[in-house]
Amino acid sequence: MAEHRKVIDCRRFPSEKSCSIVISGTEDDVLDLAVLHAKTVHGHQETPELREQIRSMLQDEDAAAEAA
User: Fold this and answer.
1) Distance (Å, rounded) from C-alpha 44 to C-alpha 6?
2) DSSP letters of 32-48?
3) Helices 48-57 and 27-40 meet at what angle, rounded to 10?
4) What distance in Å separates the CA atoms of residue 52 and residue 27, rounded to the nearest whole number?
5) What is the DSSP letter of 53?
6) What is the DSSP letter of 13?
7) Which of 35, 38, 51, 65 could form a disulfide with 44 if both were Cys (CB 3.0 to 4.6 A apart)?
8) Would you kindly state where each structural domain of the chain is located, as residue ranges?
9) Which ranges in the chain belong to alpha helices (H)?
10) pLDDT band, very low/low/confident/very high, at 68 (cuts 50, 70, 90)
């Protein structure tokens, strides 16, 4: 069975930067890249809490496409 793809869209979250990044892929890949993005672009510290917060923001790619 194929793993469900996840997506996170930075445009949906308030930020000092007008960020237009959308990341999609497997849950682990999206989470890793989103954490890296949060650190390097938005200046967040990588913590277990940040990872869990970002994980909670992931959406199923199909559901996100329908909502767009």
Assistant:
1) 22
2) HHHHHHHHHTT-PPP-H
3) 120
4) 12
5) H
6) S
7) 38
8) 6-67
9) 27-40, 48-57, 61-67
10) low
Could you tell me the pTM of the whole model?
0.83
Residue type, 68: A
d(CA 59, CA 68): 12
Q: State residue 38 phi and psi, 5-degree precision.
A: -60, -40
Which of the four pLDDT bands, split at 50, 70 and 90, describes residue 62?
A: confident
Q: Starting from the edge strand earliest in sequence, which strands make up the sheet with 59-60, in order?
A: 22-25, 6-9, 59-60
**Cβ atoms of 61 and 45 closer than 8 Å:** no
> What token pair was written down for 9?
């869209």
